[in-house]
From TrEMBL:
It is found in: Cell membrane. This is G-protein coupled receptor 26. Keywords: Cell membrane, G-protein coupled receptor, Membrane, Receptor, Transducer, Transmembrane, Transmembrane helix. The chain crosses the membrane at residues 20-42, 106-127, 149-175.
Length: 202
């Protein structure tokens, strides 16, 4: 519901559409909404039936979208954290460092990056129903492909999820550092003001 509200706000608010962060938010909400609508019902069917709920082609399509959307979601969160980091750490030069064009380029990379891995998995037939996850996802059927699939999985998780985690930790730790610095300055100014008021008071 919250993702749908974000999309509606983006559509009807010109002010939000003008903001650079709006590009990241709408992409993140769109991916989350699609992931919920497309993946969760099929997973529920898989749990209830305890078997593959749909045909092979539909299962591959769902698995493809799940891989693409989860990766895109993580990269969108990383891009949004970079935007917030620049806004907080470099407030005076934010408009020059993070332009609308830069946001579109970041999202373009996110889509290209996220499409690469499901396309490779389709090429090697690594998208299938997994009884462990009760859903159509990345799944190895032939043991002869074990080494190649392992390398693929490591690269996929490292460049999608681990990379996003590192970026999120770095950017928000920097934001926290700036916030703590400003809190200390506010405390000092408050104390100086109180001392001044005490001195002035007859």
């Amino acid at each position: 519901l919250s993702n749908l509200l974000v999309l509606l706000c983006f559509v009807y608010s010109t002010e939000i559409r003008k903001q650079v962060a709006g590009v990241f938010l709408v992409n993140l909400s769109f991916c989350n909404l699609l992931l919920t609508v497309l993946n969760m019902p099929f997973t529920l069917l898989g749990i209830l039936r305890n078997q593959q709920p749909l045909g092979g082609c539909v299962c591959k399509a769902v698995g493809f979208l799940e891989t693409f959307l989860t990766s895109n979601t993580m990269l969108s969160m990383a891009a949004l954290s970079i935007d917030k980091w620049i806004a907080v750490v470099f407030p005076l030069s934010y408009t020059s460092k993070m332009r609308y064009k830069d946001a579109v380029i970041l999202m373009g990379y996110s889509w290209l990056h996220s499409l690469t891995f499901p396309l490779v998995s389709l090429f090697y037939s690594w998208v299938d129903y997994s009884s462990v996850y009760a859903s159509c996802t990345l799944h190895l059927k032939e043991e002869t492909e074990r080494r190649r699939f392992t390398v693929f999985t490591i690269v996929f998780h490292s460049t999608s999820f681990m990379l996003s985690l590192v970026i999120l930790c770095f950017t928000y730790l920097k934001v926290l550092k700036v916030a703590r610095f400003h809190c200390k300055r506010i405390d000092i100014i408050t104390m100086q003001t109180l001392v001044l008021l005490v001195d002035i008071h007859p």
